[in-house]
From TrEMBL:
Record protein name field: Class I SAM-dependent methyltransferase
Record keywords, A-Z: Methyltransferase, Transferase
Gene Ontology biological process terms in this record: methylation
One MF term in the entry's GO annotations: methyltransferase activity
Gene3D superfamilies reported for this sequence: Vaccinia Virus protein VP39
Biological classification of the source: Bacteria, Bacillati, Actinomycetota, Actinomycetes, Kitasatosporales
Pfam families for the chain: Methyltransf_11 (PF08241)
Chain ranges passing through the membrane: none
Any coiled-coil regions, as ranges: none
Occurrences of domain Methyltransferase type (ranges): 41-130
Length: 232
């Protein structure tokens, strides 16, 4: 409920919302891997709220963001942040103890290649945290949700008429249809990772159950959280 209330306040208090989200994400990571002393790679972390929270907890946090506008938007990015393409990170194999990626997968055209790069930069036995908003979620259309259920182009035009400004996201350019079932099949078919957990990111109860029910999971998950371990 705290996250949902924070989300409703996001337009007026984005700093407060993203700081709350970062604390919650760090708590989730620490259920599986302590952050203190770990090398944490934050891929697509925008202005750096997650990286800063990891550093507050004693991690060596590094931010890699492909969009310079996101990196240098309304706040000063963390020291050492790098503009980098998530398909080809400037890191050696096995660099990270934890590879963290929140709400990025729906913005990449080739999720399979992108996930492979997250795995590559994670050490054997290391943790990979991936969450994303699935297309049939009520929030799947992002700023023009939930009207995406009636068609992406119609929803985008409606948003622009109502707000008088261009939509940030355009389907097929910087927003893509990513689905829960297809993503689960994809990661389970890999031989270089083990799925530790696959659950609804924001559900306060039975978060693992909803992701097991075909069709229902596409609408009810809202945001899929994958916890993966890099295989030795």
């Amino acid at each position: 409920m705290a996250l949902f209330r924070g989300f409703l306040r996001e337009p007026s208090d984005p700093e407060g919302f993203y700081e709350l989200l970062a604390r919650d994400a760090a708590n989730q990571v620490e259920r599986y891997e302590p952050l203190a002393g770990r090398v944490v790679v934050d891929v697509g972390g925008g202005g750096g709220h997650f990286t800063e929270e990891f550093r507050r907890r004693g991690a060596q946090g590094y931010l890699f963001e492909p969009d310079p506008c996101e990196l240098t938007g309304s706040r000063r990015p963390p020291e050492g942040a790098v503009v980098a393409d998530g398909y080809l990170l400037p890191l050696a194999d096995g660099t990270a103890d934890v590879c963290f990626c929140s709400n990025v997968l729906e913005h990449v055209e080739d999720p399979r290649t992108f996930l492979g790069e997250l795995v590559r930069v994670t050490r054997p036995g290391g943790l990979i945290y991936v969450s994303f908003t699935n297309w049939y979620s009520p929030w799947g259309g992002h700023e023009w949700a939930p009207w995406h259920y009636l068609g992406a182009e119609r929803a985008r035009r409606r948003y622009e008429r109502r707000t008088g400004r261009p939509a940030k996201h355009v389907l097929g350019e910087n927003l893509f249809r990513v689905h829960v079932g297809a993503t689960l099949r994809q990661v389970r078919a890999r031989d270089d990772v083990a799925v530790v957990s696959a659950r609804a990111r924001y559900w306060p109860f039975l978060p693992d159950l909803v992701t097991r029910v075909p069709l229902l999971r596409e609408f009810a998950t809202w945001n899929l959280l994958l916890i993966l371990r890099r295989c030795p």
